TrEMBL record:
Cytoplasm recorded as keyword: no
DUF4142 domain segment(s): 64-194
Residue ranges, annotated region (Disordered): 207-238
Keyword Signal: yes
InterPro entries given in the database record: DUF4142 (IPR025419)
Signal peptide stretch: 1-31
Pfam families: DUF4142 (PF13628)
Protein name, entry field: DUF4142 domain-containing protein
Key words of the record: Signal
Length: 238
């Protein structure tokens, strides 16, 4: 059965904007008064707290920073059990081996997330999100190669979604602890994507649509071959 195509991921064009839209879910300000049908004062206060930047000894800690730590924790809560199960149930040895390795690496990532959360006083969840739980149920309901395809597809899409989010935080955070954490996450996620692609189940149907971009060059004519561009050092003027 073909896995439903995921919602396309936004292009990582403007990093700060990406952090706001992807990490924080594109939240809109809740500044309206309750009298005109807007948010209640308690909701406004709660949202203001979620958007707050606090001072730490390692630098400012913003909402995008906290969201990344939580997302890494949530990823481990569903990818560890899926990887462990795949080590037993997957039809192909490559799927068994690679997903088991992803689970092992997520144990280390979870250790890192718990450590930085304790230092920065960030509360962490103890259960996967409702969406992640639905993925686990979907994967668990398959058998044979359909099990492999579904597990790999769901994991690959999830890694493709968090990859630009990590890059956005890595590029914009003012907190030195979070910057180091994002750098470590970047290495892990890159490895996980490679492991998933190594199963042979990452096909066109398992990937989101390419992001929309502006300012892309027009495609070259198939009937006209271009000579290689000159070296940058030969065209730069001193």
């Amino acid at each position: 059965m073909r896995t439903p195509r995921p919602i396309p991921v936004a292009a990582p064009v403007a990093l700060c904007g990406l952090a706001a839209s992807l990490l924080l879910g594109g939240c809109t300000a809740l500044a309206r008064q309750s009298g005109d049908g807007g948010a209640q004062p308690a909701q406004v206060a709660a949202e203001n707290a979620r958007q707050a930047t606090v001072t730490t000894e390692w630098g400012p800690l913003g909402p995008a920073d906290r969201a990344l730590i939580v997302k890494v924790r949530e990823a481990g809560l569903w990818e560890i059990p899926v990887g462990r199960e795949a080590a037993r149930r997957a039809a192909r040895p490559a799927t068994q081996r690679n997903l088991a390795e992803i689970a092992r690496q997520h144990e280390r990532l979870d250790e890192l997330a718990r450590g930085i959360a304790a230092q920065l006083n960030v509360p962490l969840p103890d259960r996967p999100t409702a969406e992640q739980q639905s993925w686990m149920s979907e994967i668990g309901g398959k058998s044979g190669t359909e099990y492999d395809k579904t597990a790999v597809a769901r994991l690959r899409v999830a890694h493709g979604q968090i990859y630009p989010q990590i890059a956005a935080v890595r590029a914009s955070t003012r907190n030195t602890l979070v910057r180091q954490f994002a750098k470590q996450c970047e290495t892990f996620v890159h490895t996980h994507m490679t492991l998933l692609e190594g199963t042979g189940f990452v096909t066109v149907d398992a990937l989101p649509d390419p992001p929309a971009v502006t300012g892309a060059p027009e495609p070259g004519s198939p009937n006209q071959r271009r000579t290689p561009a000159p070296a940058a050092t030969s065209v730069i003027r001193d």
